[in-house]
């Protein structure tokens, strides 16, 4: 039986980061970092972490909201992002439209928008540094032979970026943004499996440039593209969940991880 517990470690800035650690029964050779969606450590993310442990990986899911855990809860984020996403897509980068929305929010809600929307670039850079620090912590503390990463939505983009920073052995990117600096793909050591939904323009607009970079820098790269699906199609219980595509994507994920992590 797997062993499930929450642990802590000090990140790059000495902040305490909490992570869900699920240890497989018996010995293991590889560890996998599970990077959460914008909603944090949801039941879906916990279940993914459990599945990976049942495949005999040490599975670790950091709460990248640990510094503001009481504010950045799944419910708080869902309530605020629902308001933000009610803006038409062409208005979400409009300063006046965002300012009007901010005027209708409570101080707590404004803090969430600042963290996850207005200051998103700063927030994500801190999260990537947290993933780098966790990679080092896992390597030094648990001593796996190989370490991989898997991320969903926001976490997919963070996982992809982290692969350019630390020598991860494999990464599975579920509908995540491409790395900010495409030339950094040359730094990626591990194999990449990128999974995309066909009806996901915000993410897919970056695919052509990504493919040019893949051809230029030649990492080990696999891609799966699912027609008729939408962003977050693999999130069980979510509004865009597609069981057929999710099952196929997971089968590809498992085979990919077995190939590169053992």
- Helical stretch count? 9
- According to DSSP, the number of beta strands is 8
At CATH level 3, the topology of the largest domain is: Rossmann fold
Low-confidence stretches: none
- Helix/strand structural class: alpha/beta
What would CATH call the architecture of the largest domain?
3-Layer(aba) Sandwich
**Radius of gyration, Cα only, in angstroms?**
18 Å
Order of strands across the biggest sheet? 1-2-4-3-5-6-7-8
Which H/E pattern describes the elements?
Answer: EEEHEHHHHEHEEHHEH
Main sheet?
Answer: 8 strands, mixed
Helix content: 40-55%
| End-to-end CA span | 20 Å
Can you say what the CATH homologous superfamily of the largest domain is? Answer: Alpha/Beta hydrolase fold, catalytic domain
**Strand content of the residues, in percent?**
15-25%
| Structural domain tally | 2
Q: Can you tell me the CATH class of the largest domain?
A: Alpha Beta
What is the residue-averaged pLDDT?
A: 97
Shape type: globular
